[in-house]
Structure formats: C-alpha cells, structure tokens
Design a protein that fits this description.
By secondary structure, the chain is an alpha/beta fold. Among the domains are: 147 residues, no CATH class; 451 residues, no CATH class. It contains 45 helices and 25 strands. A six-stranded mixed beta sheet has the order 16-13-10-11-12-25. Strands 18-17-19-20-21-24 form a six-stranded mixed beta sheet, with helices on both faces. Strands 3-6-7 form a three-stranded antiparallel beta sheet. Strand 10 and strand 11 form a beta hairpin. It holds the Pfam family CHAT. This is Tetratricopeptide domain protein. InterPro entries: CHAT_dom, TPR-like_helical_dom_sf, TPR_rpt. It comes from Pirellula staleyi (strain ATCC 27377 / DSM 6068 / ICPB 4128).
Length: 1080
C-alpha cells in the first residue's frame, strides 16, 4: 500500500532563516541558490523515482534486466563535492541483490560492501532527518491475507514514504572567512525506510556470503562500532531502525545473543506499531533461529514475516520468508504439506509477482512431495515452469531450485533418465553459485593475504573443509552436493602448509588424508553421496561408526522398502553362497543364474532408491575411506613397523614417517629429480615399451641400482642402513608419480659404503592409498573358499600352452579355486559379490578407459554393469582379495607418456570401496612362468602369513631360483640365453601389494611368518641370499626376536618457515626420517 506524505519545500526555507543572515556574502550566495534547490526538492528524492521503477523487473524475476536498471539509476544519484550520498546505498544493495539471485556471489559481495562503506561515510545521516515525534495508527488497511492468520496483535503504523533531511552547512560564513567549499544547506526528501532496508539487507547478505570470515573482517568491526553508538534520534521511535541494523551487525560479528536482543526490539516502532521493516526483523530472527535448530520459533517468525511484508508491499521479503518457512516445515518433520502455500501462490499470481509465485510453487512441490503427494508435487512443478517461461530467473537460483526439485520428483516416480537433465542443470549452476565453495575461496584468500592470524586461519579451514554433517544435508542439500562434487584442492594444500607452519606434524598427516578423501569423493557421482549411502545401507556393521549405524536405522524407518530390500538381498546372497561358484550341474547352474538375476534386480531397486535418497534432506556419514588420527594408527602399530606417507601438492612433495611412538616430517627437495630418476630406473630395468622384449643381456646389468639408490635417499632424507635394520615392515602411502616407484627394488646402502641391497630384502612392503587404511577395517578374516581364476594371454605373443600350464598350476595350488564359465552368467558388478578371491591372469588392456571405467573381470568387458564403478554399486561385497598381474601403468613406458598417479590411486580406491581388502597389481606386465610362480607361491602363503609377509616370501623364493627363457614371453629370443638368474627386478619389482593389514588366523607375528618352513612340497634348505645382498638374512632378523630398539635423535629439519607456501629447510644430510618421540 502507499502511505506517502510530502513536506512542502518552502518549509525548508523557513528553517534556515536567521543563520542565513550572518554574513552578507553568504546571504547573497544562499539567496541565489536556495530557491533553485527548493524547486529541485519537488521533483527529486533520495533515492529517486527511477530507482523504484526498477523493481518491476526485479519482482518479475528478470534479474539481469533489473541489474542494468539499478546500475542506470545509480548514475542519477545524489552527488556532491563530498562524493555520493546515502541514496547510493540503495543502488549498490539492489544491484547486489540482482547479482545474488543470479549466483554471482563475488559481484554481489562487492556491491554489499560498497553500500556499507557508504553507510560508514554517512553514519550520522539519520540525525539530520526531520522525524515526527509520534506515529499514528494506519486507518486504511486494504491488504487481503489469504494464506493464514497472524497471531500477532500489534497495530500497523502510518509511516510516510519520505522524510525531510537537511544536507549542507548552516555555518558557511566560517568557510567564507577561512576558505573551503561552500556547501549550501538543503532539505532533501529521503525514503528513510528504504535506505535503512537496503543497509539491513546489505548487512544480512554480506554475513551470508562471507560465512565464518565475516566475524573476522575489519569492515564488520567498524559497522558494529558505528551502530553501537546508535546514531539516530535518542528515545525516539526511529531507534527501531537503528536496532535492526545493529542486530544484523552483531550477527555478522558472530554475537548472536546480542543480535537476537536487538532484532526483537526492532520489531515494533516505539514499542507499539508494526513498521515497514518489521517483516525484515522477523525474517532475520527466523534465520537465526533456523541456524540454531530452533525450528518452531523459526517457522513462527517466517510465517509472521509474510503477513507483515504483505501490508507494506515488501514482496522480496515475502518470497524469502515463504521459502525458508517451507524448508523449516520439512526439516522439522511437520506432518502433511505446508498449509497456505497454494493460497500464497494464487495471491502472488493475482499481484503478478512472478518471482514470489515461482518460489512458492517450488516450495509447495517439495512439501507435497515430502507428504507423499507425488501428483500434486508434479503439478506444482509444471505450474512453476510455465510461470518461469522466458524469465531470466530460470538461469539463477530460482531456476536451480526448481530443477533440483523436478529431479527429485522424477526419481521418486522411478524415472532416473528424466531426472538427469534437471539435476545436471541444478548442479552446474550451484557449483558456480555455491555459498560453501565461496566461503572456502574467500577464507583461503583472506588467510593467504594475512588478513587473520595463523590460529584464526586454522579455525576457518577446520570449519570450512570439514565433512558435511546432518545439518548441511538437512538445510541445503543442493549446496552440499555442489561442494562435494567440485574439486578444490588448493585450500586443502594451504591448510596443510599452515598447520606445518604451526609445527603440528600429526595434524598435517591427517590433513593429507583429507586431501586424498576429497580427491576420491570429487571423482564420484554427486561427490560420493550415493557411495556413502551404499556403505551405510549394506556395509558390515563392524565397519560403521555408531553414527552411521543410527543413520542406517533411521534410513530404514523412513524408507521401509529399503529395509525389506536389504533383507531380500541378504537371503539371496546366502542362497548363492550355498551353491558352488562354478558347477557342471545344470540344475545348479539354472538356480545360480536365477539367483544372480534376482540379486541384480534387488540391487538395482536399492540403487534407484538411494539415488532418490541422495537428493533428500537425509544425513549420510562418509564411512569409507575412514578418518583416523595419527594417534589411533600409532596405537595399533606393532613394533618394527614404519609408515611412510607422501603427499604431492602443487608446490611440494611432503614426506611423513612414523612408527608406533615417533614421527618425522620433511620435504622432498627436488621432486622433478625423483621423477627423472624414476624414469631412468624403470628404463634401465627394461621398461622401454609395454610389449618390447627385454634383451637377456640387460638382465645381467646392475645399472638400475644407481638411480634406485638415489631415489631412496631422496624419499627418506638419506636414511642410513642402520635405520632400515629396525623395521620388519614398511607401509608406503604413495602419491602422484610415486605410485610408479617400485619401492621393493630401491637400494639401501650397506655399511661398507660400496654395496647396496634391495629394500624388499630388509622388510616386508605393502602399500595403502591412505594413512587411515594402514590398519584393518574391523571385519573378521573369513575362509576364502570361493576363488575365481580367469586366465588368458598376458602378452599377445604368449604361447597358449604356457597359458594353460599357468592356469593349471594356479588352480592346483589353491583349494576351492575354479575358472568361470564363458559367457558369464551375470554382470561382473553382480557376480563379484559371490567371489571371495579373484585372480585375473590376463591383460587389462583398456587404455582409453578412465580409472573407474575398466572391467576387473574382463570376461564381460564392454557390457552393462561390468566396470569398476559398477562394482562399487550394490550389492556390497567385492572379492576380499584381488590379484591382477596384468594391470597397466605409465611405468611400463618409463613415464615417457606422462602419468600423474591419480589413475592408480582412483583404481585402488575403487577396488577397496567395493569391499576388497588386499590387492596385488602390476605396474608393468611380465607374464609367463615368472608371474605364475610369484602368484602361486603368494596365494599358498596367505593362509599362514600376513599379505605383506606372504608376498615377501614369494619374492624371496623366486629370486633365489632360475628363469626358463622359453617360458618368459617378455624375454627376447636368443640362443645365448638358456638359464638366467631370477634376481632381476624386471620380473619381481613391478608388483605392488595394496593391503589393509588383513591378518590370517595364524601366525600373527610377521617374524614367525618369515621363519616358517616352506610348504611341504617344497621343503628344502633355505636358499642363499641373492648375490647383491650378502647381508639379507641378517637384515630380516632373528626368528622370534624383535629388533633392538635404538634411541631416535631429534629431527634435524628445524623450523618450517616464515609463511604459508615456503618450503621447510632441508633436514641435515643423512638425518633420515628418524623423528622425535611423540608427546604423550
């Protein structure tokens, strides 16, 4: 409604009277100017009429057009010798609002900050306004409220649209006498409530966009200081507007109790009347209550805000209040659809407020969908789409919300295909407009610029780079999904550097793990959201935290069909486990095929439901990979176990080493040199090309040992031989190109300073993709009675007779092993749930596939549900052990074609995510009898030793033997080669054992495993140490005797550096990775 009155310009002239007669020169000057200015006062106000005309496009949802109009309005703003005046607060704020609704957060923040800087420049402007002493009650209320009834009884006040404000100086005589710019006094008609509204909106939006950075921002502190002086007429009803601004400034400073107190006072003018900004105070109180989880209070405040806003035609407040009210209705678990939304839509349509109508219809669709009225929800979405046709709003936040809700409804209707396009559009917008991502980027810039202390910087990173929690998914699932699915590694790296600056090495290792988690999740659908839900629903309970267990229960209560499907899947898997993995019995084959088909159908049904749930306001803990602290891992490590953790960032390669009671940190000085040495080592070992034969003469060469020794020195800070003697197991967490480094073949210098020995001789070696996976996952070790063996040509020229001989040798060595029939009876993603151990002795030749898009089974390559990403889907329960000696990495080209290591990391994480615990993969293919012998001995040892000790023993036995060149397809044919030593690392150094410390029943001690006699069929005297390793036996250790503990020196690496990004000084040469004892 329009409640305007106008003060006659001549009244301004009377107010100036006596002061204008002080000096003749001033009088003459003033009399010549004032009539003109008074005349201008009749047609010009602050802000001017053109500004208000711009609201038409804004309320219509045409935000780009509105932005242009507000920008043009600013050109006609009030200007003086002192710069722009308070009307520019409005132009900046509404230009910011236009950007805000289009998702341009950076531009919006700039405009809001500009508005507030203008406010500070004119902070006392309300002291110059001619306010009436009292406000009367409004007698002409004609607003028709159709969506509910207010519970508040405060009367509506009658407030003029404009009040007169005196600008200029009354003492210009002093200026004339002393010099300066004469500023004639003038009374300006000002839309006071609009200026205050825009100041309040700028305060609120700036807090929203800055997130936790806001309370540490200097401008925020200046605003609190200025407003806490209450720069308005004292003991006057207009103080309600100061209280509104002050309350929002307190909120921006993180002082929520003070903010609530001021905003509550701001609801009424003079403690009596609702005023034009009552709705804004109610809306902001609702937001604060919503943030604190006080949903009943929030819902009341939002509802009341809609009523008050309607009386004063504040449609943008109504739109936001209805949106928040609907979210609160759903989040608080209210029954049924939200009452009044349909009526509010009709009201908005009648008023032709398109922005508000589209928002209300979208909110109505969500509440109807939540209440189970799918048809009504779909109809609301259809209406909203018709309203939004050709509106610029379709490309903004409103369009993203509508698309997201449409995708949810399609998924609930069982139509995932139709859901793809709107979901993709919603995420594409949100990844650009995400508040969470904007907070991260802003905090990162602020910290890097030194805008906060190191302590505050650490707090900000901790707040913003955390895992999504239940509140995040509940309050804003779309923004949470956008954050999860958008890679943002640099802030994580800067956090790591900051923590190292603070000399918190343990936390640095934990942050390195979070960097890897983020890398993995951002490569998955919806940032790993569906992956997390799969684990909650189907992972073994011992692998879940108590929180995840409770989330599973809540999930099954909210979606009873999921609980029933879970039971049916369990029954079907039990029935399949009762059948042989492969059988010639036709009846059993039919039964198995039927059960696998049923399992596939049940799992597909679960997947469709989880896709739907993934968009809902439902929490999901990310159970895998787990988060563990260094203390947790150290506490579970055995004596003699060394963990080496590497992390490659955009600027450095960090190395962390720890045992059960000590740790050290250093920076790899020249990562580029490590890569060059790695490429040289791989080339000298024999990796020129993936299929190029190796000349037997190269097998006799030891040139590869030179770069192998250099690499180990660089990666371990030049550790000495006596350092390595303390460790019986080394766990490597590689990163980047270090995935291609065969640590087993790296060379340790011996005491004589001339000879070296391989690291594999001194200790068992295993790899994990994350520090948290160094430890077992809590599952018990089950008998691996169902081993699937798939044998094919590893090398194109490999003789078929050798292939069949290798197959027979592996099958004969493993009880319960069998080959799978072809064609397979079910897709690999389903069949994998019935396999305990998979041995794929064949070539994985899918170079064009992504790290999650190759087929681990190969028999079903190219068919639906055959890729590794399909294996990560339900049913959960991939093979416990996976052995793939035909896996490819860039190591087979000696890195000539590049390689980041990410493809290995993601493949390994994908296999472990499917339920596997132990992986044996190759960096380069060898094939032939050597591969068969290594694999056969390894799987024979597994029932008696840990995986790392079983592999170590297999390699030791192999290296002590001889090669048959005719049985090795990678060896170049030559008459000179008839019998070769097997000690060359080309044949044994290319394998990497990725293992999560899964243990056999007995023995549990790695030393016992090494000392255990060879299997019965191979009982013989222990082989002599390889020629290059004269002290290998001594390095392994005395059976049953733990290595003697030696005191570890203090780290020599010194302080890490003066600022983020600086490289810590290199540790003293030869300091190794021995660290200081952990502070207890």
């Amino acid at each position: 409604m329009n409640l305007s009155t106008t003060t006659h310009p001549m009244q301004m002239c009377k107010l100036l009277g006596k002061r204008l007669l002080i000096a003749a020169a001033v009088v003459a000057l003033t009399l010549s100017i004032v009539p003109t200015l008074c005349a201008q006062g009749r047609s010009k106000s602050a802000p001017h009429d053109g500004y208000f005309f711009s609201f038409g496009a804004f309320w219509d949802g045409d935000f780009a057009t509105a932005a242009k109009n507000f920008r043009d309005s600013a050109k006609s703003g009030v200007k003086s010798t002192e710069g722009r005046w308070i009307d520019s607060i409005c132009y900046h704020t509404m230009l910011g609002e236009s950007y805000y609704h289009m998702g341009d957060n950076a531009s919006a923040l700039d405009q809001y900050s500009s508005a507030l800087q203008l406010y500070l420049a004119h902070r006392d402007w309300m002291l110059r306004v001619d306010f009436p002493a009292n406000i009367d009650r409004e007698q002409n209320l004609n607003t028709n409220i159709t969506w509910g009834v207010s519970t508040r009884t405060a009367p509506i006040g009658h407030f003029p649209d404009k009040f007169q404000s005196m600008q200029g100086r009354l003492d210009n005589d002093q200026v004339v006498q002393k010099g300066g710019v004469v500023s004639p006094p003038i009374l300006y008609p000002v839309h006071v409530s609009e200026v205050v509204r825009c100041t309040a909106v700028a305060l609120s939006r700036r807090r929203e966009l800055m997130g936790p950075v806001s309370e540490h921002d200097p401008l925020t502190a200046q605003l609190v200081d200025a407003l806490s002086r209450r720069p308005g007429p004292p003991n006057h009803w207009a103080q309600c507007w100061i209280e509104l601004e002050l309350g929002l400034a307190y909120a921006a400073a993180g002082k929520i109790p003070q903010a609530v107190s001021e905003l509550q006072k701001a609801i009424l003018a003079g403690g009596t009347f609702d005023h034009p900004l009552t709705c804004l105070a109610l809306l902001e109180l609702g937001k604060l209550a919503f943030e604190q989880g006080k949903y009943d209070v929030a819902l009341t405040m939002f509802s009341e805000a809609t009523f008050s806003a309607a009386y004063f035609d504040r449609y943008e407040v109504m739109e936001e209040a209805f949106r928040y009210a609907a979210v609160t209705h759903v989040v608080s678990g209210q029954k049924g659809p939200m009452a009044g939304l349909a009526a509010a839509s009709g009201w908005a349509k009648q008023k032709r407020i398109r922005m508000m109508n589209i928002t209300v219809l979208t909110s109505l669709a969500e509440t109807l969908d939540y209440a189970g009225d799918a048809a009504g929800a779909a109809d609301a979405i259809a209406q909203a789409r018709r309203e939004m046709a050709r509106a610029e709003m379709a490309n903004g936040a409103g369009g993203a919300r509508l698309n997201y809700q449409a995708a949810k409804i399609f998924l609930r209707a069982g139509n995932p295909t139709a859901a793809k396009q709107p979901l993709a559009a919603a995420l594409a917008y949100q990844q650009v407009a995400s508040k969470w991502l904007f907070h991260i980027a802003l905090a990162d810039r602020t910290i890097a610029a030194g805008g906060v202390t190191e302590r505050i910087g650490d707090i900000l990173y901790t707040q913003l780079l955390r895992e999504p929690n239940a509140i995040d998914f509940s309050h804003d699932p779309l923004d949470t999904l956008a954050m999860l699915s958008t890679p943002h590694p640099l802030p994580y790296e800067h956090w790591l550097e900051l923590v190292l600056l603070r000399k918190e090495q343990e936390r640095a290792i934990e942050i390195a793990d979070r960097i890897r988690r983020h890398r993995f999740f951002s490569a998955l659908t919806l940032g790993g959201r569906v992956h997390a839900l799969r684990w909650i629903l189907e992972a073994p309970q011992e692998m879940l935290s108590q929180t995840a267990v409770l989330q599973k229960q809540d999930l099954q209560v909210r979606y009873p069909i999921l609980a029933e499907l879970t039971k049916q899947v369990a029954r079907t898997k039990a029935a399949l486990d009762a059948l042989p993995l492969a059988t010639e019995d036709q009846e059993q084959r039919k039964q198995q095929a039927a059960l696998l088909l049923e399992l596939a159908k049940l799992s597909t049904a679960e997947e469709l439901l989880l896709e739907q749930v993934s968009l809902e306001r439902v929490p999901s803990e990310f159970a895998f990979p787990p988060i563990r602290t260094v203390r947790e891992v150290q506490g579970a490590l055995a004596d003699g176990v060394l963990v080496l953790v590497y992390l490659q960032t955009s600027r450095n390669v960090y190395a962390f080493a720890f045992t059960k009671d000590k740790y050290a940190t250093f920076v790899v000085e020249t990562p580029a040199k490590v890569r060059l040495d790695t490429a040289e080592m791989l080339r000298l070992i024999g990796n020129y090309d993936r299929t190029q034969p190796v000349d037997p003469s190269a097998i006799a060469s030891e040139a590869w040992k030179v770069p192998a020794a250099k690499i180990l020195k660089q990666l371990t800070n030049n550790a000495k031989a006596e350092d390595w003697a303390k460790y019986r197991e080394v766990v490597v967490v590689p990163d980047g190109p270090l995935w291609y480094v065969p640590f087993e073949a790296l060379q340790i210098p011996l005491a004589d300073g001339k000879t070296t020995q391989s690291l594999a001789t001194t200790a068992a070696i295993r790899y994990t993709p994350m520090m948290s996976l160094v430890l077992p996952d809590g599952r018990g070790k089950k008998p691996l009675s169902r081993t699937a063996v798939i044998v094919g040509r590893m090398i194109p020229r490999e003789d078929e007779a050798i292939v069949q001989s290798n197959s027979a040798a592996i099958l004969g060595a493993i009880p319960g092993s069998t080959t799978l029939p072809t064609p397979v009876v079910a897709p690999g993603g389903t069949l994998s749930a019935t396999i305990d151990r998979l041995i794929l002795y064949g070539d994985i030749d899918e170079p064009s596939k992504g790290p999650l898009e190759w087929s681990p089974l190969q028999l079903d390559r190219g068919k639906p549900l055959s890729t590794l990403s399909d294996w990560m889907m339900l049913p959960f329960a991939g093979p416990d052990e996976v052995i793939i000696p035909g896996y490819h990495t860039p190591a087979e080209y000696a890195l000539k074609r590049g390689g980041t290591g990410d493809e290995v990391f993601l493949s390994v994480m994908g296999l472990l995510s499917s339920g596997s615990r132990s992986l044996l993969l190759s960096r380069w293919r060898v094939g032939g009898q050597s591969t068969q012998a290594l694999v056969r001995e390894y799987v024979q040892e597994l029932p008696h030793a840990s995986a790392s000790e079983a592999w170590r023993r297999s390699v030791q036995l192999f290296r002590a033997g001889r090669l048959d060149p005719a049985a090795e397809p990678r060896l170049k044919s030559t008459t000179a080669a008839s019998d070769l030593p097997a000690d060359h690392p080309f044949f044994w150094g290319g394998y990497m054992l990725v293992d999560t410390a899964s243990q056999p029943g007995v023995p549990s001690d790695p030393v016992d495993a090494v000392a255990r006699p060879a299997p019965a069929e191979e009982k013989k005297a222990p082989p002599p140490p390889p020629a290059e390793e004269k002290d290998a036996a001594a390095a392994i250790g005395v059976p049953g005797e733990a290595p003697k503990k030696e005191p570890m020196p203090e780290p020599a690496d010194g302080p890490i550096g003066p600022r983020i990004g600086d490289v810590p000084p290199a540790p003293a040469p030869g300091a190794g990775f021995e660290g200081k004892p952990e502070a207890k």
